[in-house]
Structure prediction request, 153 residues.
Amino acid sequence: MNAADITIARATLDDLDTLTPLFDAYRVFYRKPSDPVLARDFLRERLQRGESAIFLARGAGGEALGFTQLYPCFSSVSARPLWILNDLYVDAAARRRGVARALMQRARRHALETGAVRLLLSTARDNHGAQALYESLGYVREDGMLDYALELG
Prediction:
């Protein structure tokens, strides 16, 4: 598979059945139990409410290869929008074929098209493959800030 074999389009509700197994597999990758109903409901809400931008990668035969999901946010200091690239997943059979790179490039284009000042993402400290991809695309690790989280139940 080469880049010419990959098409990426913004997902709509019509893509829900295609996206659901990918999103469920993504959650399982992060050690959550498989729950296709929860995955479908979550995606449906995001798509219906326009709360995220989801891009779906397909192969030459139309098969689903992966997706990325971005959430809108704002930079108060810059007084401009930004996007959080929260989810990136490529089906195991399609990995190492340029799908993740193509999805990341599409996410960047979307951020530029919407006037965003930056695109943010986080990854696990031990996910060296993802880190190499991000850095090859110009992402810079931010060492000056510390991230904190408050779990709310």
Remarks:
- Residues 53 and 70 are 5 Å apart (CA to CA).
- The two ends are 43 Å apart (CA to CA).
